[in-house]
Amino acid sequence: MSERAIHMTASVLLGYPDQELVEALPLLTMTVDRLPAGEAASRLRAFLLHLAATPLPRLAEHYVATFDLKRRCCPYLTYYTYGDTRKRGMALLRFKHAFREAGFEPAGAELPDHLAVVCELSARGGVRQAGRLLREHRAGVETLHRALLEERSPYADVVAAVLATLPPATARERAAALRLAQEGPPEEQVGLEPYVAGEPR
After folding, report:
1. pLDDT tens digits, residue range 144-195?
2. Phi/psi of residue 76, each to 5°?
3. Residues of the chain under the 50 pLDDT cut
4. Most exposed residue of 15, 54, 178, 198, measured as fewest CB within 10 angstroms of its CB?
């Protein structure tokens, strides 16, 4: 149950900050205070303190500047492995199948590989399916966390809390995360027409 509570809290905190988030702060704080002592609880508590001390316009500005304007801080997990290539579409289908298997349809317009949506799947009872997706895309979550740390973003604490719910990373997973951080996501190479900046397409 504590894993579901961690993921539920992370799901809310990783969404766009609005008045509803501010109003939910007491409930979120109570939820985190009831978690067992550990990495996840301390990381979520640190972010909640930041949330309580920061005016909503600044929270919103930082969210957009971080997740919308910096590709290296992309919250969509398949982006890290597949970039904007055709293969990403097939990867998204795997997420959709996992959601259907759990009997859950994501609300809103977000793609199913958004980290907040995957955490919501776990919070709603699809713990096994969400855990599988998080483990399969752990390198992406690790890369996102590394990028947020380098940006000195408080959101690094929320992603760290999610990582704390996963088994320790293997050597292979650590190597994959390092490679993604160094090389970035792949780019589509097949079927693209040559394009020179300034020329009509």
Report:
1. 999 999 999 999 999 999 999 999 877 887 787 777 777 777 665 433 333 2
2. -95, 115
3. 189-201
4. 198
pLDDT given for residue 179 in this prediction: 79
Give strand pairing partners of 76. 114
Whole-number percent of the chain with pLDDT over 70: 91
Do residues 77 and 136 make contact, with C-beta atoms less than 8 angstroms apart? no
pTM of the model: 0.86
Three-state secondary structure along the chain? CHHHHHHHHHHHHCCCCCHHHHHHHHHHHHHHHCCCCCHHHHHHHHHHHHHHHCCHHHHHHHHHHHHHCCHHHCCEHHHHHHCCCCHHHHHHHHHHHHHHHCCCCCCCCCCCCEHHHHHHHHHCCCHHHHHHHHHHCHHHHHHHHHHHHHCCCCHHHHHHHHHCCCCCCCHHHHHHHHHHHHHCCCCCCCCCCCCCCCCCC
Q: Assess contact for 26 and 20: CB atoms under 8 A.
A: no
